[in-house]
Design brief:
alpha+beta; Aminopeptidase; 13-stranded mixed sheet; 13 helices
Length: 372
């Protein structure tokens, strides 16, 4: 018999966060989160997403052992301002037992009905900057710090429980060594001159921080038309600044400005911390943070986390400026492989950015929907 228990204290929240460590203990592809960061993300007194959202967490027990978990999330900005009557679920993990998944999903549906919502969708987080989507292809590729990993049977569970595909995301990779850099050099010079633009490249985090608010403004503008978009609040901006600044190599952050110093494009690229995170086993101390610091400079894989372009400059080749600057930094750090983190399969504007790259899709993931 499956029993559900709602998380009510810090001890139980830590159990919620650490359950996947046992579920994936034999997987060489699962990448653990940093436990302390994950606890903060799920804590109402730490994560400003809770200013406009609420969440309840549930653990499933069978024979007195934890066998599953799920977060039931209500985003009030999405519901009240965007009129999207969605009940979100995320942080979903389970053993291969359909009864466990059914019990967890029924609890989410129950909460959704209490709020008079129309459907449930997941796995998703609080906003666009959180992890989302269940892996449907690419189970034999190592995960990243920005994505969830799951066993293949999750998809069978969704199908058996009457869920249908809502959104699909793709992840791809390409070889940095084979980049057509000559083309970007020529295009860079042409674009800078034609539109009176200038590139911003940095070596210190302190040089990046003054531009971050403008970057988030541009993020909201450039991503607003996507079907999954929920605006990022000012409080969330401050939270993400603090959360990611220690993981950023400043030389992998690129901005493009117009002649009036207005930001018109940006790119955030992160070094891959996957292997380092596996070694740390979710703990920063006593030596975990040293492994992450080493990976920050030594990783040969770069993750394209976000690229945004002002709508007025889209399809005008502005990304050539970013790639030209990025090439200099990648060469310096010996980057060999580049990974494009999840992008909506129907985000054609984003796909156009990569038309000159020999990219290969390595993973697909989906969110799943069920009417209430």
């Amino acid at each position: 018999m499956i029993q559900l228990h709602e998380v009510k204290n810090k001890k139980e929240l830590k159990q919620f966060v650490t359950f996947p460590f046992s579920l994936y203990k034999d997987s060489k592809y699962w990448v653990p989160p940093i436990i302390s960061d994950e606890v903060s993300t799920l804590s109402a007194d730490k994560n400003p997403a809770f200013l406009h959202a609420e969440a309840r967490y549930f653990l499933a027990f069978k024979n007195n052992e934890i066998v599953g978990r799920i977060a039931a999330i209500v985003n009030w900005t999405e519901i009240n301002d965007q009129k999207v009557k969605k009940m979100r679920f995320g942080w979903f993990d389970t053993i291969d037992d359909l009864d466990v998944s059914k019990a967890l999903m029924e609890k989410v549906a129950e909460i959704g009905k209490q709020h008079n919502l129309e459907y449930i969708e997941g796995p998703v987080g609080f906003s666009n900057l959180d992890k989302n989507g269940a892996l449907t292809e690419g189970f034999d590729h190592i995960g990243t710090m920005a994505t969830w990993y799951n066993h293949p049977y999750y998809i069978d569970h969704f199908n058996h429980l009457g869920f249908v595909t809502e959104k699909e995301y793709i992840e791809s990779k390409f070889s940095f060594i084979n980049l057509p850099i000559e083309r970007f050099v020529r295009a860079n010079e042409l674009i800078l001159k034609r539109f009176k633009l200038k590139a911003g490249s940095y070596t210190k985090a302190s040089e990046i921080i003054p531009h971050l608010d403008n970057m988030f403004n541009l993020f909201n503008d450039s991503y607003s038309k996507l079907s999954s978009f929920v605006p990022i609040s000012n409080a969330q901006r401050d939270y993400f600044k603090k959360k990611f600044i220690n993981f950023v190599n400043p030389e992998f952050i690129k901005f493009v400005f117009d002649e009036h110093d207005k930001m018109v494009a940006f790119a955030i690229v992160l070094p891959s911390f996957s292997e380092a995170l596996q070694e740390t086993k979710g703990k920063l101390f006593p030596f975990g943070f040293l492994k992450l610091l080493k990976a920050k400079k030594a990783s040969k894989t770069a993750l394209f986390y976000l690229i945004g372009v002002d709508p007025h400059y889209q399809n005008k080749g502005v990304t050539a400026v970013i790639f030209n600057e990025m090439h200099k930094s990648f060469t310096k750090y010996g980057i060999e492989t580049c990974i494009r983190l999840p992008e909506l399969a129907d985000n054609h504007a984003s796909h156009q950015i990569w038309k000159d790259f020999d990219t290969k899709i390595i993973k697909r993931r989906k969110t799943f929907k069920k009417m209430l």
